[in-house]
Design brief:
By secondary structure, the chain is mainly alpha-helical. It has two domains: 45 residues; 33 residues. It contains five helices and no strands. Helix 2 crosses helix 4 and helix 3 crosses helix 4. The longest helix is centred in the C-terminal third of the chain and has 34 residues. The radius of gyration is 31 Å and the shape is rod-shaped. It starts with a helix and ends in a 12-residue tail after the last helix.
Length: 110
């Protein structure tokens, strides 16, 4: 029993610190992977990182201009939705204004 408690204490004290990578490093790593024709595993070994980091960085859009394009695309889609909504309101308003008035005839055609 005492050995397990001691071994648990050793594993807790040897906890690894989490590495943080600079966004520039992430972009360059993904660009190297995509442009070299090598596998993610090979590039990860060369850079001393885990293979999954390359896939994560690629999908999160941290990797270069595609991340910028994604953000711009989202902003443009939001703006387009707003402009469409405004257009639809104007169409409805125009339809209401241009309807003939139903005055004393109660809508019966003559």
């Amino acid at each position: 029993m005492k050995e397990t408690a001691v071994s648990k204490e050793k594993t807790v004290s040897k906890a690894k610190t989490r590495k943080k990578y600079d966004p520039t490093f992430k972009r360059e790593a993904v660009a190297l992977w995509q442009n070299s024709g090598k596998s993610a595993r090979e590039i990860a070994q060369q850079l001393g990182i885990q293979e999954r980091h390359l896939y994560d960085w690629k999908t999160t859009g941290v990797a270069g201009p595609q991340g910028d394009l994604r953000a711009e695309n989202v902003a443009l889609r939001q703006e387009l939705a707003l402009v469409r909504q405004q257009r639809d309101i104007l169409k409805k308003t125009l339809g209401i204004i241009s309807e003939p008035l139903k005055s004393a005839t109660n809508g019966s055609p003559r």
